Amino acid sequence: MKQKIMDTSIHLFDKKGFTETSIQEIVDELGVTKGTFYYYFKNKQELLTDIHLNFIEFLLKNQDEILQDASKDTKEKLREMIYMVLTSIKGRRKSARIFFREMRNLGPGYLDQNVQKRDQFRKNLQTLVEEGIHKGEFEEGLNSDMVTRGILGITNWSYYWFDPDGEVTEEELANIYLEMILNGINKKK
Fold first, then answer.
1. CB burial class (10 A; 0-12, 13-18, 19+) of residue 81?
2. What is the pLDDT of residues 42-97, one digit of tens each?
């Protein structure tokens, strides 16, 4: 039931927004009582936090698998990371939009744990960029923090406009992004 509450809330928050969706609307959609909601969540803030944590933990788990793959160089890992974010759009588009759009609605106690995990995803990517610079795969002297934020800006905004069932596949878009990024950071020969 907890997951059903989360799934229904994701749908309603995506459609109406967090602040515009009441607990009553969530339970009405599910055909349960408010008591059922409060059995699993103290309040809407806790529910939103769980939605956020579920999404970022999914990304962190997949990111870690990519980073631990010793058979790939930093360019291949970067491509895999971009591809992973893009493929998650198909099944988790609403969760992603809620993650980026509704974070501002988390109170301080709830926001901290989400920000910490979001920052960990960014730090892991930045470490990969720094590794590529150190190994000579990427251009020396790059500001790894700004490069990382640029990569995240490109990929994260895809949740708002990219249609995985459209004319460009996730694979093709990952290659387009990687080519665009690497043209600026490939070591010049």
1. buried
2. 999 999 999 999 999 999 999 999 999 999 999 999 999 999 988 887 778 888 88
Asked if 24 and 112 sit in the same domain, the reply is: no
Cβ-in-10-Å burial (0-12, 13-18, 19+) of 146 comes to exposed
Shared domain for 115 and 62, answered yes or no, is yes
Question: What whole-number distance in Å separates Cα of residue 132 and Cα of residue 114?
Answer: 28
Whether 4 and 58 share a structural domain: no
Tokens standing for 102? 């509704």
Three-state secondary structure call for residue 19:
coil
| Neighbouring-strand partners of residue 186 | 138
CA dist 19 and 88 (Å) reads: 25
**Whole-number Å distance between alpha carbons of 36 and 74:** 47
How many contiguous H segments (helices) and E segments (strands) does the chain have? 9, 0
Q: How far apart are CA 28 and CA 124, in angstroms?
A: 41
For 55, the domain range is 44-185
Domain total for the chain?
Answer: 2
pLDDT tens per residue, range 102-154: 888 888 878 888 888 999 999 999 999 999 999 999 989 889 999 999 999 99
Please state the pTM of the whole predicted model.
0.85
Q: Six-digit token pair at 133?
A: 């610079």
